[in-house]
Here is the input.
Amino acid sequence: MYQRREFVKYGLAGMLGLFSEQLLAGNGSTGTRSRKIEPNSLASRSWDEMRDLFPLSRERAYLNNGTMGPSPQPVIDAYVKSIEHTNVSGVYGGGKPEALEALSRFLNCDKEELAITHNVTEGINIAAWGVDLKPGDEIILSKEEHVGNGLPWLHRAKADGLVVRTIALGATADETLQNIRSAISPKTRVIAVPHIPCTNGQVLPIREICALARARNILSFVDGAHGTGMMPLDLHDMGCDVYASCCHKWLLGPKGTGYLYVRKEYQDELRALFVGGYSGLDWHVHEAVPFIDDNYTVGAHRYYYGTQSAAQYFGIQAAVEFQEAVGKERIRDRIAELNEHLFQGLRSLGTTVEILTPEERISRLGVVAFRIRNKDNNAIKSALHEDYEIRFVAESNLNSLRVSTHIYNSMSELDGFLKALSEHI
Here is the structure.
């Protein structure tokens, strides 16, 4: 039986060591290489070699990372090892400080500014219901929202008599910024937009949007579902007040994990509507009348509470360490390389293919959205499903398709997809 202190030290190096033992024993999911895997070697491994760390099935090409990012084996091992430890030892907990430390380092923010959540939507709801708004106040959303960002704000607006104004995304970053600027009125209190919308994969000029909001004393909220792990993030430099993201897409972490970043200076303004253990510094009950002192836990821990999954924490830590070992910039560049290859391949298919993702290089990275004109694109997705996993986009009645790729994908997979798609044009 191993002790908890031993498990806490069981980081990426230990997980890669465990995976190498599985390969040597012939028990690995991939089983194609039988040499020891060292964490410091990840930065120099070829992408074909990197693929061997993912147990993701090779029966078909998975081109839908924007929905769910398959984890590499070291992350899976960290998660499973924690579950085994909890059930063998009966000791619950652990991993939270390490996960917060890893995330804060990865995002360039203070760990006191982070709350670990179950998903992006949970973080968005904390923000949407916690911000101080009164009837008539206005919220700016884009017309390309995922239900996870759109519905919480619409629900709050309906409950409290708020006004929601929507803006169209432009073909360029400058045009999008101008559309937001034009929508601002004296009653605007919140700008809540996606970093990268789920619909067309456009990378918004978030730093400039947040600066615009700050100059007008407007809350800047970012739905960052598609930011973390796709590109290096510096939340302090970004300048947002609130950023909600997940760990199970581009970070390739445990499923059902996320985080909420709340700028330190804004935490006393964003109410914690749901509280529990660790939310406050002082509480007591007198004569069955509950009393909670208005003195919350220092930092973003006020927004999450009670029993959490230690396995999730250790999985988040392992996911961050895996990406750091590969190299955040190297990951971004590989994602961009795959994106460019697919984008140009779609253009070569002719004007029957309408590409919805902006051509501007700074406005795209890991996602390409498109549709075949005058076709039922959902039917095309179904026809390709046996060999290629992609996403049909029904939002905003787009009737379009979305391909999102990560480091486990290859150029040959994209070439095969383009060839298969061409047969449906």
About this structure: Confidence is low (pLDDT under 50) at residues 1-10, 19-36. The longest strand covers residues 188-194. DSSP finds 14 helices and 15 strands in the chain. Residues 350 and 425 are 10 Å apart (CA to CA).
